[in-house]
Design goal:
- The chain has 2 domains: 122 residues, Rossmann fold; 211 residues, Rossmann fold.
- Helices cover 27% and strands 23% of the residues.
- The protein has 10 helices and 20 strands.
- Strands 11-12-13-14-15 form a 5-stranded mixed β-sheet. The protein has a 4-stranded mixed β-sheet with strand order 2-1-10-9.
């Protein structure tokens, strides 16, 4: 099944179930389908079938409608973080020019500044996922049969300084991740998942597509509850948590990581930073019914490519950081070296070969170097700092020392 097939299957199977909860409002899968289909019609009226769609919104219904509608229309999306400087957006759009940019009313003023520098159309949503009069057309959305995007999204890394580096993730890469992570995420209808990540962080892709292709509810933290995350989890009966470890650390600092504070959780995933063993242990006491997993993966390997379940301090062999573990699904992770030091190799169907077409040549070796087939990639790390463990090609566990694996 294609990504769109999976979304349409969710719309049909879970039409009456809640798909998104945001700003104290619940939207069903039927609601999301209708709004995303209308947005797809607006795209068809304005831009060509192969154009890129910029998403200048986040943590609201408009951003989800924009992304899902873009996928339904057979196009790829480009996150444009409203919190980033306009100069960064300009550098990104020089490499991946969006033919249209969607935005919510609260971001319209800054979005217009960006569009003055670009020849992009604007599609304004009303904050409730509906296309305003300047962006749509009437009619029924006809599901195209031959426009499934080879590229689902483009993600730009390097932080807020330096030249942004673009990575295109293919549909086949994302589908491989969804299949591989499914038994780990263990999410389904009637579950409720967090959505903490900004769209410019590729872990947000997990939030959206793992949740919405499973019949679960995507649940956004209200601004008024940013200092009351434990209350948010309890009141919304959250079953699935995904965040960087520093968010759990923040909860601990403000006294919200006490035993059974996060009792509703059944699954907790961490990625994007090293996960300290002490923090994982504290979180496990707070979410005693949850399985806790540590994920790792560079952007080029689609969200995450290794996983390690945290089962207690006693199983960590004295480590202070939870190891990377083994490959997700059918992905390949090996160490090239003598067992004490070497290079990490990542391979499999999640590793993309696609980059921005006008991406400048990096001044240092790229993080991953795909082969001609895109199946094997090699990281540049030389082993020198902290320990980690991954599975070798034959399934055995190797230990090595590696430099910073914290960035995703």
């Amino acid at each position: 099944m294609t990504l769109r097939d999976r979304l349409f299957a969710s719309f049909e199977a879970y039409a009456a179930l809640p798909a998104v909860w945001v700003n104290d409002e619940t939207y069903t899968y039927a609601d999301l389908h209708a709004k995303a289909a209308h947005f797809a019609l607006a795209l068809d009226a304005k831009i060509s079938a192969t154009d890129v769609v910029g998403i200048y919104a986040q943590h609201d219904l408009d951003s989800i409608v924009g992304i899902i509608g873009t996928i339904l229309s057979g196009r790829r999306y480009l996150p444009l973080n409203p919190n980033f400087p306009i100069a960064r957006h300009t550098a990104i759009c020089a490499q991946e020019p969006p033919a249209a940019i969607i935005c919510s009313p609260r971001h319209e003023k800054r979005a217009r500044i960006l569009m003055e520098e670009l020849s992009s159309d604007q599609i304004l949503l009303n904050g409730d996922g509906d296309v305003l009069a300047n962006g749509g057309q009437s009619g029924t959305f006809a599901r195209p049969q031959s426009r499934d995007p080879s590229t689902v999204y483009s993600m730009f890394t390097s932080g807020t300084t330096g030249t942004p580096k673009g990575v295109r993730i293919l549909e086949s890469n994302l589908l491989a991740y969804l299949d591989g992570i499914a038994p780990i995420a263990n999410i389904g209808p009637h579950d409720r998942a967090t959505h903490f990540f900004e769209l410019s962080f590729d872990l947000s892709v997990h939030d959206i597509f793992v949740t919405l292709t499973s019949g679960a509810q995507l649940t956004m933290l209200p601004g008024k509850m940013k200092l009351a995350i434990a209350d948010f989890v309890a009141e919304r009966d959250i079953t699935h948590w995904f965040s960087v470890p520093s968010l759990a650390s923040f909860c601990q600092r403000i006294g919200q990581l006490t035993p059974d504070t996060f009792a509703p959780l059944r699954t907790a995933l961490f990625c994007g930073e090293a996960l300290p063993v002490a923090l994982a242990e504290a979180f496990s006491r707070s979410a005693s019914a949850a399985k806790i997993w540590n994920l790792y993966g560079p952007t080029e390997a689609t969200i995450a490519v290794t996983v390690k379940e945290f089962t207690g301090v006693a199983d960590m062999d004295g480590e202070v950081v939870v190891p990377l573990g083994g490959p997700i699904g059918t992905q390949v992770c090996t160490i090239e070296g003598d067992g004490n030091e070497g290079q990490l190799q990542l391979g499999g169907s999640q590793v993309t070969r696609a980059t921005s077409t006008t991406r400048p040549r990096p001044t240092r070796p790229s993080l991953l170097r795909p082969t001609a087939t895109g199946r094997i990639a090699r990281a540049i790390w030389s082993c020198a700092a902290r320990r980690m463990a991954i599975s070798s090609a034959d399934g055995s566990t190797i230990r090595s020392r590696s430099t910073d694996f914290g960035s995703n």
